[in-house]
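Before a colleague's protein record goes any further, I have to sign it off. What it holds is a sequence and that sequence's fold in C-alpha cell form. My question to you is simply how this chain folds and whether the C-alpha cells agree. Thanks in advance; the entry in question is below:
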Amino acid sequence: NTYHANFFSTFTDFNPFTHALAFDIANIVGAVVPSHFMIDLYVNDKQQPLFLGIEHLSERTIKNWLQHDNFDLFIYRKENSKKSITKFKQIMRAVRGKKGEAALDELAKYYDVNNVINSIILNAYVANHDFCQGAELFLKDEKNNLKMTSINWDLDHSFMQEKGGEWSIRGDHIFFPMLN
C-alpha cells in the first residue's frame, strides 16, 4: 500500500484521541465513518505529537469501499456536481411538505433511515456540535431505486462544550469529568 500524507504547519485537530474515540463509537453504533488510525510520527528520531490518520473523503475512497463506481457523492460545504445537487434536491422535494409519519415514510423511500438514526445517536452521544460535515452517498438499491446514505466524516468537535463563547474539550463535560 502507498499512503500519501499532507503535513500542515499548524495542527488543527483539537484532540486526536477524542476524534479517534468518536470514530470508534461510530463503528459500535453502526454509523458510517472512514477508516482511521493513530500515527506515532518520528522526524529525525524525534517523536512528534500523535496524529489521527483518516481516509480522505473522495470518490476514489468510496469506490474502494463499495468495489464499484455506480454512485454519486454530495459533500457538505464543497462544490458538488450538478447531478449530485439534482439528486439531493429531488429527495428533499419529495419529503418537504409532509409531516409526522408521512414524512418518515416518504424519507424511508429514498434514505437509509437506520443510518440516519445511527448518525443522530452518534452525534448526540459524542456531543459533536459540528455535525453537518460529512457527505451523502447516492446509490441504487436492489430495485434500482435511489437511496441516500450519510457518511460521518468530521468528528473532531466531539466531547466539547462551549463556555463563554469558546469551545473546549476541558471543563465539566458530562462524558469526561476526569479532564477537570
User: Anything to note?
Assistant: The longest helix spans residues 16-29. The CA atoms of residues 64 and 108 lie 26 Å apart. Helices lie at 16-29, 59-66, 82-95, 100-110, 113-125.
